[in-house]
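P.,

For your records, the input lines for the assembly:
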Amino acid sequence: MAMTLVEKILSEKSGLDVRAGDIIVAPVDIAFVQDGTGPLTISQFQACSFERLANPLTSIIFLDHAAPSASRELSNDHNRLREFAKRNGAQLFEIGDGISHQLIAESYASPGEIIIGADSHTGMAGALGAFATGMGSTDVAIALSLGKTWLRVPESFKVIINGQLSKGVCAKDIALYLVGNLGADGATYKALEFCGDGIAYLTMSERLTIASMAVEAGAKVGLFPSDEITHSYLEHHGRGQKYRPLEPEPDASYERVIKIDATRLEPMVAKPHSVDNTALVRELEDMKVQQVFIGTCSNGRLEDLAVATEILRGRKRHPDTRFIVAPASRQVLSEAIQAGYIQALVNAGAVIAPPGCAACLGVHHGVLGDGEVCLSTANRNFKGRMGNPEAFIYLASPATAAATAIAGCIADPREMM
Amino acid sequence: MLRGKAFKFGDNISTDLISPGRYFHLRSDLPELAKHVMEDADPSFASRVKPGDFVVAGKDFGLGSSREHAPLVIKMAGVSAVLAKTAAKIFFRNAFNIGLPVLICDTDKINEGDELEIDLTAGTIKNLSTGAELTFGKIPEVMLKILNEGGLVPYIKKYGDFAL
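Structure tokens returned:
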């Protein structure tokens, strides 16, 4: 029987001919934690009396969630992680280096690998054709020491994207449309495998946006085939030799097939308090917004800042709307400075936050006030997500975010381009 | 045999409602973090829950973050099992890893405050308040083994590896 992309990767890795539903033990190529999940990972690592890492070069600690630290407790957590990395030879990315998932994409993930991270958005590396999935601290502690994990081979949904997005419509709109269509639990335990003629029009940055949102439909991973776009991305990041083409077998069987006509999509939002509570931007125009946030693993890349800059250049944020921009990594920040985006965004009234998760999770800055509305390019809008259960979060693309920052209320970017 | 009272919650209880991100700085002080369990879903839960009680919810319980602190604070509150129509995948796995069973069943047949008796081996839930008897979905064998050892850490300490 022909194999899905997930079955292909997990068969190769486990050395068995596996199919959806099989339980396997597989080697882990890359295992990582961040500062929110890492301290508990260390505790569990020590509780197991482990003394060494199986693969120190691909055992990674990212200080991205509270970066820089906002409190004494978090600073102590950071120090514990730094000491663990030093003692065991793990790789450590400091505050300001960027978001784990972005750095995994820039510097680590390659097609056909198994990546597990103690962060739910780990599935983002599926954009590079890797089987990447989020787990908890204990699972990652075991993987760090044993170099393997157990997995249930997931059934796959085939998501066929046809055609090209029109101007002002972004990959985020595909992701929101898909999650709205599937529902927040519509793909629980499943893998999403993307294909169709439309994926050739999607840059790696756009694929990463879509893959980062797969978990918002409950999916284990959002997988793209590895193709020439993957190849040039890997080349750009200095590891072209890691490229290998990878795609599902032609007659693989899928539990469900979802078709998306990209040419017909419009700018979308996810309304509070769930990601599948989607609507068209034009249905919500006039909704006043007190804070706009562009950033996160979902939409904090150079291309996202370029889209925002195109709309904001020479314009100003609305006087009643605060505007925060957090590049996803140091490299993104650096390239955005060179490209002039940062200057244009600052001129438009943006606060530039350090590379990291920033305002997404309400830990250290960008926390909303009671009753306030934020439009964010993040992946989540759960109640309390940005630090205040009395606030309201709308999710949208960087283009919609830029237009909203100018208008002071939810606005259609196509009218400003 | 598990016995306790049902605390009823709705659909889509996210990890942000279970263990809010604004207490992120308390993650290395678990007893302090646990004081805020379920705070944004029901602020009175932490003060009312008794050892042995159950969290009973609708669909997609535990969606969102991979924070293992979510099942941990529920367990630390004394809850002996979570019952839900469906559960998010990372939460589900994390809960068994720390020794907290998540049972998939028709929770519409359980009301707030109902007294429940659960037999994990037989796979049955008795609602002592209404007389209803429920069954729950089969726990995957690998997770049952982990649960029987009290979680993944004791499991690995015993076997030294995955003994599937």
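Two observations worth noting. Chain B has a mean pLDDT of 96. Chain B is about 30% helix and 20% strand.

Regards
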